[in-house]
Design goal:
Layout lengths: L8 H26 L3 E4 L3 E5 H6 L7 E11 L3 E7 L1 H12 L13 H26 L3 E3 L3 E6 H12 L5 E11 L6 E10 L1 H10 L4
Antiparallel strand pairs: 1-7, 2-7, 3-4, 3-5, 3-6, 4-8, 7-8
Helix pairs in contact: 1-4, 3-4
Amino acid sequence: MSFIEKLTSYQLDILKEIGNIGSGNAATSLSKLLKRKIDMKVPSVRVLSFDETMEIVGGPDETIVSVFLRINGDAPGSMFFVLSPAQAEQFVHQISGDKDFSFDQPLLTEMGLSILHEVGNILAGTYLSSLSDFTQINMQPSVPELNIDMAGAILSQGLMELSRESDYAIIIDTTFNDYEETSKQIEGHFFLLPDPESFDKIFASLGAF
């Protein structure tokens, strides 16, 4: 059995709690950016196989919007923040007020892409900062990369790295609620992929092993 398959419900609860703290910090940053109240929650943390990971974003041929960053420092790994194109469009609409932004257009506006890059940067950065603070392990994000492509093409790099030791990934579900547009909840996913040698170090620091 691989290291990631040994996760207990207690350890997943730790990840969920860290996720909720990171989400709270991210919500504060987004609220300042939007100048209105945003609420974020982590309803669940799951361990899924590679096939299941692909399926929750619609399959390997489904187009997704992803912000990828490499985790550097004492516990290296990879992190993806993933949205469907429709959810990503909603982010742009709410932040910029540009209701015409659409991935169906042949040319995407630079402002819309910049917004998605910045939102992904805020969300991934605050989660990683919370994880680093909790574990007291130095973890620094690389410069985030925004990608719009088929899920298989985007996710294969990080999943291939992990597949040397395991066929599973940690999925952190996230929901966003805009209090001025209560009918529009945005759902995204963090894919947390610690390198094999980093996993035991992270959980040992949390007293989980």
